Amino acid sequence: MTTSEARLLERLYNRYVVKLASEAYRRLGNLELARDMAQEVFLAACGNAEALCAAPNQAPTWLFRTLQTLLEDERRRRRLLPSMPLEELPEEAQPTDGGGLDQDLRAVLPADLRPADREILLLRLEDRLLFRTISRLLAVNQEACRQRFSRAANRCRKLYLEELVDCGS
């Protein structure tokens, strides 16, 4: 990174980091995550310093567009991955002494989950396949694949919540 690129990034950081974090906080409602997002924007800016230096007037737009992309990724992640407080996870999914999950996803999916739901959740979350690839494997179009995944994730959440209610009564 050249000196002029470093100076530009420093000026941009000083001027926009609070604005970026504020926008992220407004959208996420989580201060720590908002600050992390603002930092990620500037990490990306470091990797794109040459282009930003070539068009410094466009740099603020680039920063906020990058933040928008990160926020959309976070929204997508939250929608796709069910989340619940750690203490509410089924006992078999609780962290082990090593701090990580000791079992794979197959072992912690609800037993009552339909086989087709189990299959698509495993392909997407455990095997980390793209919808394009999953749609080919299942011989359906991508939109149908996304809908199947969404419905499977919703049914999985519902079964987890039913398990929690059953455990509590």
Task: Spell out the blueprint of helices and strands.
Elements: H1 3-28, H2 31-47, H3 49-54, H4 59-80, H5 105-108, H6 115-126, H7 131-138, H8 142-168
Helix pairs in contact: 1-2, 1-4, 2-4, 6-8, 7-8
Helix coverage percent of residues? over 70%
Q: Quote the beta fraction.
A: under 5%
Please state the structural category: mainly alpha
Note the main sheet. none
Mean pLDDT: 82
Number of helices in the DSSP assignment: 8
State the shape: elongated
Instruction: Identify low-pLDDT runs.
Output: 93-102
Number of strands: 0
Annotation keywords:
169 residues; mainly alpha; Arc Repressor Mutant, subunit A; 2 domains; elongated
Describe the structure.
- With 169 residues, this protein is an all-alpha fold.
- The chain has 2 domains: 3-80, no CATH class; 103-168, Arc Repressor Mutant, subunit A (Orthogonal Bundle), CATH 1.10.10.
- The chain has helices spanning 3-28, 31-47, 49-54, 59-80, 105-108, 115-126, 131-138, 142-168.
- The longest helix is centred in the last third of the chain and has 27 residues, at 142-168.
- It is elongated and about 60 Å long.
Q: What is the compact description of this entry?
A:
Helix 1 crosses helix 4 (59-80). This protein starts with a helix and ends with a helix. With 169 residues, the chain is mainly alpha-helical.
